[in-house]
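Dear colleague,

Thank you for sharing your sequence with our group. We've completed the structure prediction you requested, and as agreed, I am returning the results in plain text so they can be pasted directly into your records. Please verify that the sequence below matches your submission; if there's any discrepancy, let me know and we will rerun it promptly.
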Amino acid sequence: MANGHLGVIIVDDDAAIREILRGIAERLGVDVLAEAENGRGAIEEAERHRPELMLMDVSMPVMGGLPATRYLCERLPEMRIILVSQYDHKLYVDQAMQLGARGYVLKAAAASELGPAMKIVMDGGTFVSPRVDC
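Please find the predicted structure tokens below.
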């Protein structure tokens, strides 16, 4: 990841959160290809840019992260998705993983967990924030 060859799209309805995630990704040497503010925009940007990874919120207007994850995992199975959410309940994690997400990071822990999560997910594993309420 440090060589900058990993392309990512950041999806969140809150511009401030997108900016924070962009800063974290750029500090990790990741190329931010695009941003979107909802699941529909995520689909459009993913089809346009074909990123290796998407960082996406769960709860957004128009189309949330879970239905977008389902769609994208069916249409672009080579792309990996990490959901970045404020929701810390295991039900969200279970649903996300069933739909094809490879990671689940809590927004409150993004600064410390996003780097390890991206490495694990891009190496073929899965990552769930240890802060998720089991």
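Summary note from our side: The first strand starts at residue 7 and ends at 11.

Kind regards,
the structure core
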